[in-house]
Amino acid sequence: MKTILTLVLILCSYGFFAQKIEKIKLKGEKDFGKRNLLIYTPSEYTDQTRSFEVVYVLDAQSREFFDAVHTTIAFQNNGLRPMIVVGIASPYRNIDFFPKNVHPETVQEQYGELGGADDFSDFIENSVMPYVDENYRTIPTKIGIGYSNGGTFMNYTMLKKPELFDVIFSIDANFNYDKGQLVDLIKNQSTFKNSLDFYFTCQTRAGDSWIENSTVFNEYLKTLTDMQIEKELFESETHNSVFQQGVMNAFKAYFKFQFFDVQNLIEYLKDLESKEDFTLNKNELLRLAVVFKRFGQKEAAKNVLLNFQEKLTGEIEGYDIYALFETADLYFSLGFSDFAKKYFLYCDKVLEEKKKNYGIEKYNMGKKMISEKLKLIEQWDQQRIND
Length: 387
Hints:
single chain; alpha/beta; 2 domains; eight-stranded mixed beta sheet; 55% helix
């Protein structure tokens, strides 16, 4: 029989070739104009029962920023949480990213290219996000990624519209804009709506004042919220090279916090089910358990199934003997003897019905493996009765 690990690796390998990227042009409200969007859907999107978190990445007019994000997710999520990625192009990026200035001299410093951040955030909120939610199967969790002046925009938007994103990655943001406007804004923030779950911020040695302002900003942010804040200083990266490394480390930290910490994952999924039109189905639940088990976290895998045990009931469907056996073996390895027995018996039934399709050697091997597992389950059950 194939192993779970082999199955997972095959599915992950297939994913790199079945992804899809669409290009659209979307018009904003009033006289905002149009912006080009790139929308990436992972191979798993072909499964009509699944919905996906959405990542919004700025600066998609430079394709490498968009590509760096969706390829990083493909490598870092270990098959656990594939995501939709939306790239938003900004041909006049500083107009989109910078808020209106406070200091008059800032206009000259930026050659007049500034002041449209509020309009740009309105475009994301009222045009881009509704379009994505209406045309794709989405989970309401929204991740925003901005680099350099795009990071300035993300931090500004976090203060002005904290409900817009649930997670923010700020990659080497320009905290010097308009004589440190972001620092002044957060200093004057007496309250902060803590709707963000996770914030990753990193800086390079682009300038000491950038780091100083970033440090002050983060210290104030920490006093206003209990969100998970991850900070990093890249000594060996430059401002021009940091994006790829920053994105990789940000996703590593976020996946570890939100999805590979089993308790956080369980709370996250239960919160989604209680608040949104989202239902965790049995197949996705089993995928989660497979990934945890694959990384040697059997107790975490068991914990996931125990917390959603009511979803494991119901009739068994399908005739893929290998997939059915792997599900039975997953239950068996995690100590769910009743479910394991049910699946092994169903495997035996399918094996008998499809006997001619497998050939005598595979048939006999299958019968032997199923029989051995059922005997072990019987021994377990007897031991429990004796105890």
